Amino acid sequence: MANIVLFGPPGAGKGTQAVRITESTGLPQVSTGDMLRAAVKNNTPTGIAARKFMDAGQLVPDQIIIDLIEQRINEPDAIDGLMFDGFPRTIPQAVALSKITQVSHVIAIEVPDEKIVERICGRFSCTKCAAVFHDIFNPTKVTGVCDLCGSSEMKRRADDNETTVLQRLAAYHEQTSPLAEWYEQQGILSRIDGDREINQITQDILAALIA
Ligand code: AMP
After folding, report:
1. Does 165 map to a domain?
2. pTM
3. Which residues are paired to 109 by β-bridges?
4. Active site residue: 119, 157, 191, 196, which one?
5. Looking at ligand 1, which residue's alpha carbon is closest to its atom 19?
6. Which of 13, 69, 71, 127 could potentially form a cystine with 153 if both were Cys, beta carbons 3.0 to 4.6 Å apart?
7. Is residue 89 domain-resident?
8. For the chain, how many structural domains are there in total?
9. Are 195 and 115 in contact (CB under 8 A)?
């Protein structure tokens, strides 16, 4: 069982790297943000409970997230491990995860605050394969067509606006960043400079995973 955690501020490139790590390792990507957005879209009780927090750029209460993860981890494709993207985001979430399964690597993608807003405002993703692009920093080769799977259905997130981003960044610093030290003390944290070319970052992440 090799569970990986992708850790970092909003806009650090976790989603972009997650797609690439899945290609290399075969580990399914589990994004609590994606799961919550699907729940909101389908108007499920979880979606209804989570929506106001997401719209405000605040973290969704821990128990909602832990329930989602407990269900996900029992699905058949989780047998060889999962790659968590955007989870855990608080110490109680990490403690809950440690009681369910073991984490082998935590990859912390580090990007300075001043770069976050410009990285988030302008990003969009493929609805089919989840590849992430950016109007300026990582445009598709053909406008409106996914480089990876060729789909022409792209989407932008409702919370990728400047006001919400600042709140999400504040939540990251207050509630999530203390987790880096928590995992560092366990000797499983690798810090990766995320303010570089995408391929270089992927290379360093894959090297950290086999170290
Ligand atoms: P993300 O797609 O990871 O940026 O998440 C989008 C939003 O979903 C966040 O701003 C939170 O409101 C919520 N969210 C996603 N994952 C978590 C989590 N692990 N804990 C709490 N809230 C979360």
Report:
1. no
2. 0.91
3. 192
4. 157
5. 87
6. 127
7. yes
8. 1
9. yes
